[in-house]
Amino acid sequence: MASCVSGLRGLGPQRLRPVVRSSLRVQGRPFLLLDVVSRFSLAALLSSTVSAGVLVSAPVHRFAHRRDRSGQHARKRALRAANRTLGIDGIAQEQLLADGAAARSAAAARGGAAAWAECAALLVEACGLAEDEDQAADAWLAIAYGWSPWLRAGKPTGSWLENQVVLPEPAELRRDLLWLTSLEASPLAMALAKEGEGASAKAALRQLLQARPGAVLRGSAAKFSAALGAAPVELRADFAERVLRSPRLLELTWNCGGLCAARC
Questions:
Q1: Where along the chain do its domains lie?
Q2: Could you name the domain of life of the organism this protein comes from (predicted)?
């Protein structure tokens, strides 16, 4: 192969094309030029072939496509790992509860004990949690307000993760829960009501929070409105029901129109 590449230099357009075609037949491999690219400078190859009119873009493009797909898989693996770090998708219940307890203690150390306790009580009431289930409220708050990833990283001082940590605000949480349960104001509340009355409606809200507390809390109405506006038109009629089945939809607040589909 080295001799073939060295032979490409200095050949004119009329002589270069037969050499490349002959090499392709002798080697019997459709991606012969990919070997050239991998072993020699791409710039040097292009300098000796582009002026001669040799088409190298097709095999290089196929190679790049395979590499891009590999990159997509790597990004998806990283995203799944990030989701696990955020306390969703595969984290054991025991770990979630431990994170919640640690977050409550850390918030108390910052003077947020009263606010945290009030917010936890609001969630317990809204979701109808039993006395032995109230720790779930701490876990949801820890995830929604940025405490879980910071604690799992070892509480790094001055880090980006620490900057995402916020003390829960009872007034904000009241507005969220009011919207989530108000049939007059919230399409999502109407969808929750369809799940049943009384305890069943609370159970539906609980299931929603268990699945994606970070998406549901902290500005529920604004998040729903943004996600609805970004959703394709054909999905908007029953968007609230779709959110119940997949709360992650509340995190999708921008419609790229398919321009970046290869990166999804």
A1: 2-68, 86-251
A2: Eukaryota
